[in-house]
Specification:
There is one protein chain. The chain starts with a helix and ends in a 7-residue tail after the last strand. 33% of the residues lie in helices and 30% in strands. It contains 3 helices and 8 strands, in the order H-E-E-E-E-H-H-E-E-E-E. Helix 1 packs across helix 3 and helix 2 crosses helix 3. By secondary structure, it is of the alpha+beta class. The protein has one domain: CheC-like (Chemotaxis protein chec).
Length: 156
């Protein structure tokens, strides 16, 4: 993946926080996740990707950040169930926006939501995982993009 490949995800993430969170998020430079890097937080959502690319888009955020976002939307229920729903909605929105830019060959699944930072999530081994650090109101979250080109190559 190149910076250009990551752009729809980074742009979509930035737009999400401006539109929903009312304040821009600081999007730090993406980096390739190494095995020792710990990036999983309290709530995570994984979107499977098939079609022209294969892999996943993974969003993870701390409970306090999700509660603040939910509160800004006027939701009085700040329970873990609402936080879990919301982390799935964030991942789905970011992936859906990227799909609009990447075309119909970029097929996404419904999000799978996972609670807890020690949840044993394993990313695909056959593609690098790019971590996009996000800071919003002092809360750190991350978007992880792990995609591999799935288009067949025909040699002549």
């Amino acid at each position: 993946m190149t910076d250009e490949d990551l752009k729809p995800f980074v742009t979509g993430t930035a737009n999400f926080f401006v539109q929903v969170g009312s304040l821009p998020a600081e999007i730090d430079a993406p980096f390739v996740k190494e095995s020792q890097d710990t990036v999983v937080s309290d709530f995570s959502a994984i979107i499977g990707v098939t079609g022209s690319q294969r892999g996943c888009v993974f969003y993870t955020a701390p409970r306090d950040m999700l509660k603040e976002l939910v509160k800004r939307l006027g939701e009085p229920d700040l329970s873990d169930d609402i936080c879990a729903d919301y982390v799935g909605e964030i991942a789905n929105t970011i992936s859906g926006n990227a799909r609009q830019e990447l075309g119909s060959g970029f097929k996404i699944s419904v999000p799978t939501v996972i609670r807890g930072s020690d949840n044993g999530v394993k990313l695909p081994d056959d593609a690098p995982a790019f971590v996009v650090p996000i800071v919003w109101l002092g809360h750190r979250s991350a978007l992880i993009i792990c995609l591999k080109d799935n288009r067949m190559r025909i040699s002549t």
